[in-house]
Design brief:
Length: 230
């Protein structure tokens, strides 16, 4: 549930940066950096531990560790609470503390790596696919790209068009799922259709096998139209 989890660096990279930082701060200490396969890590099983460093926001986690230690027959750890450094440059949408979440926010809109040169891909038209869950910003980004001159293809609108009477998937969907999915005016009732496929993987696949190839063809036609317009 981390913000922009896709931009979190691999564990090996993060661990190497952490070790470099710690050894720079105090090289005389021995550091044992371990990956946590569970929320507690070695803190609830290591009898040699005496203290756990927490912050105000992680104190409850420290208390949970002590509860687990007692269950495991181990003595409680001393919880040493530190203050987190504030980020003087944080924006309104970022955390007040110095945070990797804020750093990931700042990566938005930057190139993480140069565009891949693939000789199998045509140089034009240059096609960008915007994906993500509800509320992830697809519409906002599409609007910005449109203002910069991009030709927009809205897959949601194509999804409605492909079902509409006369649409390329209309007759097959009605034939496969029955006339009971139709409204009085002959349009497909998407709620009734959805109820037929919800929780039924086989029926859902039957629907997507009909609809998705037709949508892909509509996308290809619109890409050709965009190319023709320059």
């Amino acid at each position: 549930d981390k913000v922009l989890a896709e931009l979190i660096e691999p564990y090996e990279v993060r661990a190497a940066k952490l070790r470099e930082f710690l050894e720079d701060v105090k090289p005389s200490l021995r550091y044992d950096i371990v990956p946590l396969a569970d929320p507690y890590g070695p803190s609830v099983t290591d009898p040699d531990l005496r203290c756990l460093v927490v912050s105000e926001e992680t104190r409850r986690g420290g208390e949970a560790v002590n509860k687990k230690r007692l269950e495991n027959g181990l003595p409680e750890l001393a919880l040493y609470e530190i203050l987190l450094m504030k980020d003087p440059d944080h924006s309104q949408n970022e955390e007040e503390k110095i945070s990797s979440s804020s750093l990931r926010q700042r990566l938005l809109g930057t190139l993480l790596r140069p565009p891949r040169q693939d000789p199998a891909l045509p140089s034009r038209p240059y096609v960008i696919g915007l994906t993500g869950g509800t509320g992830s910003g697809k519409t906002s980004i599409a609007k910005l790209l449109g203002q910069l001159g991009a030709f927009l293809i809205d897959a949601d609108k194509l999804g409605h068009a492909v079902y509409s009477p006369g649409g390329p998937a209309y007759e097959r969907v009605v034939a496969d799922f029955g006339a009971e999915i139709l409204n009085e005016d002959g349009t497909i009732n998407r709620k009734v259709l959805g109820a037929k496929v919800f929780g039924n993987q086989e029926r859902l696949k039957s629907l997507t096998d009909i609809v998705w190839p037709e949508m892909a063809q509509m996308v290809r036609e619109q890409i050709r139209e965009a190319d023709a317009q320059g």
